[in-house]
């Protein structure tokens, strides 16, 4: 009996240890993130414009990467999985909490949608107006005297009672003040208007400032109204593809010609396309979704960039290199502007 009891205890102990190891392996969060190919989603389901349905064959697809916090098991798998990278938490979230990171990604996406609307509606010769809401707070520095009041996601609407039409106006006004001067800031927090006062600090640039990372918060109004629901996708990289989808619906032109077209890239107010991260993974996602064309941002590197980074690889170069391996029949097209992408579609079908 004693032998059997000891054997049972030993078996129980081994089972318990194995269960703990399995739990740790699959569920213990590590300070790392795993980035892998995500999805390529049909933008027809994202964009709604009254009396301007998308009735043409083919589709424009927005590509994304999948980002997940690493666990010991997934970390080991990522070490050997193709087109999968392990990123530090600092490089992904910037040291911010998960909630703050998600909030920033949602704002980046909304900004991308706004710019896409403006570029596409203007190109379609429809009415578009911009309403400048103020400075969107992306981060608050540790030495800022406003750190206990301003939070990521707040929008500064006035300083000392003055509203400006761009971030430069706010910065120019504040730069004229001295370190230690009191600044009265009016801001929106969770839909409520608040006011706070604190002294200004000396920034790392040597200028006087609040001590925040900022960007413009702009509301776009179009006629006809363009409604875009990005779902769970965040970040700014869908700008180009959103603008093509919106333009195609507004004009009614069959610019796809039945083709499945994926791509990526930010869109700027002047229609220029900006580079993004993870483009190799987005090419893989596009291939899985059946894309035959992939628009890749192309920004010619300057001499200064090449000197600092001799092995610099552009988005287009990496996308083409990846497609050659995983999707040799996919055409990777370099684009620097929205107009270039439209011209390509109109001349290649």
CATH topology of the largest domain: Ribosomal Protein S5, domain 2
Q: What structural class is derived from the secondary structure elements?
A: alpha+beta
CATH top level of the largest domain is Alpha Beta
The helix/strand order is HEEEHEHHEEHEEEEEEHEEEHEHHEH
Q: Output mean pLDDT.
A: 92
Count of alpha/pi helices: 10
Largest sheet: 6 strands, mixed
Domain PDZ: 128-198
GO molecular function: ATP binding; ATP-dependent peptidase activity; serine-type endopeptidase activity
Protein name: Endopeptidase La
Transmembrane segments: 12-30
Give a written overview of the molecule.
The protein is α+β, with helices and mostly antiparallel strands. It folds into 2 domains: 174 residues, Ribosomal Protein S5, domain 2, CATH 3.30.230; 88 residues, Pdz3 Domain. Helices cover 36% and strands 29% of the residues. It contains 10 helices and 17 strands. It has a 6-stranded mixed β-sheet, with helices on both faces. A 5-stranded antiparallel β-sheet has the order 8-7-6-5-11. Strand 14 and strand 15 form a beta hairpin. The longest helix has 26 residues. The model has no long low-confidence stretch (mean pLDDT 92).
SSE layout and pairings?
Elements: H1 2-27, E1 32-42, E2 47-49, E3 59-69, H2 72-80, E4 85-88, H3 89-93, H4 98-123, E5 127-140, E6 155-159, H5 167-175, E7 182-189, E8 192-199, E9 201-202, E10 208-209, E11 212-223, E12 226-228, H6 239-251, E13 260-263, E14 266-267, E15 273-274, H7 279-288, E16 293-297, H8 303-308, H9 315-326, E17 331-335, H10 338-347
Parallel strand pairs: 3-13, 13-16, 16-17
Antiparallel strand pairs: 1-3, 1-4, 2-12, 5-6, 5-11, 6-7, 7-8, 9-10, 14-15
Helix pairs in contact: 4-6, 7-9
Organism: Secundilactobacillus mixtipabuli
Domain PDZ: 128-198
Pfam family, one: Lon_C
């Amino acid at each position: 009996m004693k032998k059997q009891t000891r054997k049972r205890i030993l078996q129980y102990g081994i089972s318990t240890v194995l269960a703990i190891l399995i739990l740790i392996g699959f569920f213990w969060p590590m300070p790392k993130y795993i980035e892998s190919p995500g999805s390529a989603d049909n933008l027809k389901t994202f964009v709604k414009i009254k009396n301007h349905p998308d009735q043409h064959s083919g589709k424009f697809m927005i590509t994304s990467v999948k980002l997940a916090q690493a666990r010991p098991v997934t970390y080991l798998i990522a070490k050997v999985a193709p087109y999968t990278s392990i990123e530090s938490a600092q490089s992904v979230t910037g040291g911010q909490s998960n909630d703050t990171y998600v909030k920033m990604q949602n704002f980046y996406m909304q900004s991308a949608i706004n710019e896409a609307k403006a570029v596409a509606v203007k190109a379609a010769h429809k009415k578009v107006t911009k309403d400048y809401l103020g400075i969107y707070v992306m981060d608050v520095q540790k030495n800022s005297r406003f750190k206990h009041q301003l939070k990521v996601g707040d929008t500064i609407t006035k300083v000392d009672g003055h509203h400006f039409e761009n971030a430069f106006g706010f910065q120019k006004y504040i730069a004229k003040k001295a370190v230690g001067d009191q600044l009265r800031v009016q801001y929106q927090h969770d839909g409520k208007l608040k006011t706070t006062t604190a002294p200004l600090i000396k920034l790392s640039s040597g200028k006087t400032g609040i001590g925040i990372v900022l960007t413009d918060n702009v509301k776009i109004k179009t006629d006809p109204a363009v409604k875009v629901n990005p779902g769970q996708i965040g970040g700014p990289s869908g700008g180009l593809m959103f603008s093509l989808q919106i333009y195609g619906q507004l004009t009614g032109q069959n610019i796809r010609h039945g083709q499945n077209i994926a791509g990526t890239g930010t869109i700027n107010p002047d229609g220029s396309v900006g580079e993004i991260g993870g483009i190799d993974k987005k090419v893989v996602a596009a291939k899985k979704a059946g894309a035959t064309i992939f628009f890749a941002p192309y920004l010619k590197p300057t001499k200064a960039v090449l000197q600092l980074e001799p092995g610099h690889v552009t988005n287009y170069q990496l996308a083409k290199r990846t497609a050659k391996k995983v999707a040799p029949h996919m055409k990777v097209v370099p684009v620097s502007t929205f107009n270039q992408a439209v011209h390509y579609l109109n001349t290649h079908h």
